[in-house]
Structure formats: structure tokens, C-alpha cells
Write a structure and sequence with these properties.
The complex is a heterodimer of chains A (about 170) and B (about 350).
Chain A lengths: L12 E7 L2 E7 L1 H6 L10 H18 L19 H7 L7 H4 L1 H11 L18 H19 L3 H14 L1
Antiparallel strand pairs in A: 1-2
Helix pairs in contact in A: 6-7
Chain B lengths: L23 E10 L12 H16 L8 E4 L5 H9 L5 H4 L6 E4 L5 E5 L5 E8 L3 H16 L6 E2 L3 E2 L11 E8 L1 H5 L3 H10 L2 E5 L11 E6 L7 H30 L1 H17 L5 H16 L8 H10 L2 H8 L5 H18 L1
Antiparallel strand pairs in B: 1-5, 1-8, 2-3, 3-4, 4-5, 6-7, 8-10, 9-10
Helix pairs in contact in B: 2-11, 8-9, 8-12, 9-10
The chains are: A mainly alpha (about 170), B alpha+beta (about 350).
């Protein structure tokens, strides 16, 4: 596509403005975009890109009322992470989050991983039966912390044995 | 805990040796891993962070990786020591300035490091001089196998190695090369390179200096996609196709400069030499900028009697933390500029 301004270079900057429901598109080369005061960054930092994707997604879902709605204040029962916190910090709280927030995460993973959604590559020789065991361990540790806090040392000892057995 | 001579010598992978090292200074492969049964860092309590640190530290220190590795507890390291490790690319700035129980294990040759409790529980890295990504991958894969015998990683059949940030999911691999591309920059073609990198899902950033404002024409190119592609495919694409193509472009640009703008190139190089051999005060930014031009001059055969190792050494040893640790005391920026100028003069004028 040719730059609308200089009509010489290839347009690499594509702007879409929406004013009162009217869509207006602009296609410029980097030099013309720069001249018009539109800052051009060489590289969008990954975090920024991810926040943008997340913001778009939130808008998208906040409009609908279907079952596709993503509940923002779901809390992971294992680590206490919420989607809201993840959208702010861009980091998850535990392995189980990938299941707990599956619906919200899937499109984000697709976008940041060039539409890939399943692992190809190295597999550890000691793969657990499934992720449930890992999640189980997390739950046990949480219970252990609570038992220690409550000074219930009998339960704590049992939990510790159970954790050691699974590890 | 940090060996005394670390600040006074150049890293092995930065010494200008290795295949294609005039353009590809070094190769690095990093793997992100987390322990099964532990929360990721954002939700990990201080006590549990200590548990992770101890567990991984014990596991890795007990491995036989061919040299005696050492452990640095980041919470105990001075800020100068932390900066030294950042300047040597052994740890990230985030790790240096982070909070809570965290550490790094370093091989004395600096070809291997393991950051514990950075963004993920474990981030291991392997470095080599020149374009040697396959060698990096083979070595890191071997080390990863050994660690895995001692601990259990968080892994899912669908998503692979589970990481705190979904952008590292799957293989958890980050493959990167350090490139010196002065001719592409001089001939105004670097933008093309940036665009091509972006289109193919590669990340590029300046090696020295902040953001993309690369000082001294050094760039780091790395993969962004970690899921759905195997480690070996990523490594092979980098070393077999992407990097050789960039090297080819840089070589063409260098040849073009020599045929069409020989005087301009010589002028730039000689002016850079003139300043570096005579300046009494020089900032790290200016030093990087001028050393980069001399580096190209040496590689083009326009500068005799100065080795690439000497230039690389100056890049490394004139950084702020290196200067201060070698002087044995903290220096304010003005004194640093004077010391830097002195070191550069003594190294370049000896030749």
C-alpha cells in the first residue's frame, strides 16, 4: 500500500480513527507519520503489547451478556490470583491458573504465540500423571500452612508426610 | 563471594573469538522453569521463596557441569556487585534490583548462569562466543536434564513448561545473539532490519543503552514465540537462516561503504581514534559510540595494531560498576569519566 501523504513510500503505519461512529483510515510511511507528529516506535515492548491485547479483550467482553462472559473477579482457589491482578501485572500466580483462567487466557496465549496453543518440544522425563497432582500439591501446602498457623501439629505432620510422598 | 578477578577480566564469550565473531559477538540460550507444587513468584510467600532458593541452589551446586560453579546471594550482594553482574550480562537488571530471597549460580568461565527467583523460579542461561547457538542448546539441554533429575518442573501436556508469564510458555526458551551492525546503521538500512525482525516475530533491542536507542550499533536479536515450535527448530532457524542472512547484509553494507565512501569511513574511524587516544574525560555513551566505530575499522582492516579483544575488553571494563570495582572505591560520574578516559588512553596508546 502506498503512503497517502507522499504517495511514494510504502505505507507501514495504519491508523484507524472512529469519530461519532464514522470510521476514518489513514495509511502513512514512517517518515510522513513522523512529520505529522505521530511518534513511531522501533519496537513495542512485549509487556505493552500484552497490556494492549488485554485491554482490547476486556472491552470486547464487557459488552456482551452471553455465556462467553469472563468474570473478572474469579479468584484462583490455589494461589489467590485474580484476572484483574493478572491484567495489571501480566504474571500468573501458580500453574493452576492456566486451568482456572483458561477461557480468558486462551486468546491471549494465541495472540502472543502466533496462534499456537499446544506445546511441541522437550518433555521432561518425569512428567506427572497430569497437572492435577501438581495442583493437589499446592492445595496440600496451603492446608499445611493453615495447620501450622493454627498450631495443629498432628494434622501438619500428616500433611507433610503426604507432600513428601507426592514430591 | 564474587571472585575478585571477575571485574578485571573480559568474559570468555565476549573475547572476540568464535565463528563469525566480527558480526555475531555471542550466542545465548535461556530456559525458564518453575517447580511443580510451588506458586509462581507473584504469589509465593517469603518462606516459600527461601525454600525454592535452597532447593534449586542445592540441586544445581551438586551437578557436574565441568567446572566449579559459585553461588551469589543477591540479598547480600552490594549494589556495585549487582551492577557488575548486570554489566557482564550474567543476570538481568530486574534480578539485581529485585526483592526477597533470590540468587544466581555462575560458572567461572561465565558460559553458564542460573538465576533463582527472578520472574520464574529458575532461569538457566548458556553463553558462547560467536555464532554457536546449537552448541549453546546442546549444553543447556544437558544441564536441564541433570537438574530435572533432582527436582520436578511444572509442566502440562498441553502447554508444556508452565511459566509465570504466558509469553514464555511451552519451551520457555529464549534464543538470542548479540550483533554488531555498524554498516547497516551507517547506510541507513537498519530500519529495514527492524521491520523484517518484527514481521517474523523476533524481538530486537539495543544491547547497551535503554530501550531501542542502541548506543554503539550493538543489537540483541531474540525469538518471541515459545509455544508450538520445538527448541531445535527455533535454534536451527536462527543459526541456519535468520542470523546468516543478517550477517550477509552487514557484509554487503561494509563492502559498499569501502568502495563508495572509503574516505568518509576512514575519517570517522580516525576521528574516533583521535578522540579516544586523547580525551581526558569521556562518558560511557561516547566511549561506546566511538569504540563501535573503531571495532568496525579493525574488522574492515582499516585499523592495524589494535585487536578486537582489546576493543571488546574496553567495552566491558569501562562500564560504571567495572570501573569502580577495579579502582576499589565508589566514584562519582565525573571521576568515572576521567578514569574511563585514562584506561582507554593507556590501552590504545600502548599499541
Amino acid at each position: 500500500m502506498q503512503c497517502q501523504s507522499c504517495k511514494q513510500n510504502t505505507a507501514t503505519i495504519h491508523l484507524t480513527e472512529i469519530h461519532g461512529g464514522q470510521r476514518h483510515e489513514m495509511h502513512l510511511c514512517e517518515a510522513c507519520a513522523h512529520q505529522q507528529g505521530l511518534a513511531v516506535k522501533n519496537q513495542i515492548p512485549l509487556n505493552e503489547l500484552l497490556s494492549t491485547l488485554l485491554a482490547v479483550q476486556t472491552q470486547h467482553y464487557s459488552g456482551g451478556g452471553s455465556d462467553e462472559m469472563i468474570v473478572e473477579d474469579i479468584e484462583c482457589p490455589h494461589c489467590g490470583m485474580t484476572l484483574k491482578r493478572f491484567r495489571k501485572e501480566l504474571l500468573l500466580g501458580c500453574p493452576a491458573d492456566y486451568e482456572v483462567f483458561d477461557k480468558a487466557l486462551r486468546p491471549i496465549i494465541e495472540k502472543s504465540q502466533a496462534q499456537n496453543t499446544s506445546h511441541r518440544g522437550k518433555v521432561p522425563s518425569k512428567v506427572p500423571d497430569d497437572t492435577r497432582q501438581q495442583i493437589g500439591l499446592l492445595g496440600l501446602r496451603k492446608k499445611l500452612d493453615a495447620a501450622v498457623k493454627a498450631e495443629d501439629y498432628e494434622t501438619a505432620a500428616k500433611l507433610r508426610d503426604e507432600i513428601n510422598r507426592l514430591q | 563471594m564474587i571472585p575478585n578477578d571477575l571485574s578485571s577480566r573480559i568474559s570468555k564469550w565476549f573475547d572476540g573469538s568464535g565463528p563469525g565473531a566480527d558480526i555475531v559477538i555471542s550466542s545465548r540460550v535461556r530456559l525458564a522453569r518453575n517447580l511443580a507444587g510451588f506458586e509462581f513468584l507473584p504469589c509465593l510467600t517469603k518462606q516459600r521463596k527461601t525454600d525454592v532458593l535452597e532447593k534449586l541452589k542445592d540441586a544445581i551446586l551438586s551437578l557436574d557441569i565441568g567446572e566449579d560453579v559459585f553461588f551469589v546471594n543477591m540479598a547480600d550482594a552490594s549494589s556495585l556487585e549487582q551492577d557488575l553482574l548486570v554489566e557482564r550480562h550474567l543476570i538481568s537488571r530486574q534480578h539485581a534490583r529485585g526483592k526477597g530471597p533470590r540468587g544466581v549460580i555462575i560458572a567461572p568461565s561465565e558460559s553458564f548462569t542460573a538465576m533463582i527467583n527472578e520472574e520464574d523460579h529458575l532461569r538457566i542461561q548458556v553463553f558462547q562466543a560467536g555464532l554457536q547457538l546449537k552448541e549453546c542448546w546442546e549444553k543447556i539441554n544437558r544441564i536441564d536434564d541433570m537438574i530435572e533429575q533432582k527436582v520436578q518442573y511444572a509442566f502440562s501436556g498441553e502447554y508444556g513448561y508452565l511459566t509465570a508469564c504466558p509469553t514464555n510458555l511451552g519451551t520457555g526458551i529464549r534464543v538470542s545473539v548479540m550483533l554488531h551492525l555498524p554498516a547497516l546503521k551507517m547506510t541507513g538500512q537498519i530500519e529495514k532490519f527492524f521491520n523484517a525482525a518484527r514481521d517474523t516475530n523476533l524481538a530486537i533491542r539495543g544491547l547497551f543503552g535503554e530501550g531501542t536507542d542502541a548506543v554503539g550499533d550493538f543489537f540483541q536479536l531474540s525469538n518471541q514465540i515459545t509455544l508450538g515450535v520445538s527448541e531445535l527448530d527455533i535454534v536451527s532457524e536462527f543459526s541456519g537462516s535468520i542470523v546468516p542472512r543478517i550477517v550477509e547484509y552487514e557484509k554487503l553494507a561494509r563492502a559498499e561503504l569501502l568502495t563508495k565512501q572509503k574516505n568518509a569511513v576512514d575519517d570517522k574511524i580516525q576521528r574516533a581514534l583521535g578522540v579516544l587516544k586523547n580525551a581526558r574525560l569521556i562518558s560511557s555513551k561516547e566511549a561506546l559510540f566511538l569504540l563501535s566505530q573503531i571495532r568496525m575499522g579493525v574488522n574492515l582492516g582499516r585499523v592495524k595494531n589494535i585487536s578486537i579483544t582489546t576493543i571488546n575488553e574496553l567495552f566491558m571494563l569501562t562500564q560504571p560498576a567495572h570501573l569502580q570495582l577495579n579502582k576499589g572505591r565508589p566514584l562519582d560520574p565525573d571521576s568515572r569519566d576521567a578514569v574511563r578516559a585514562e584506561i582507554i588512553r593507556s590501552k590504545l596508546c600502548r599499541n
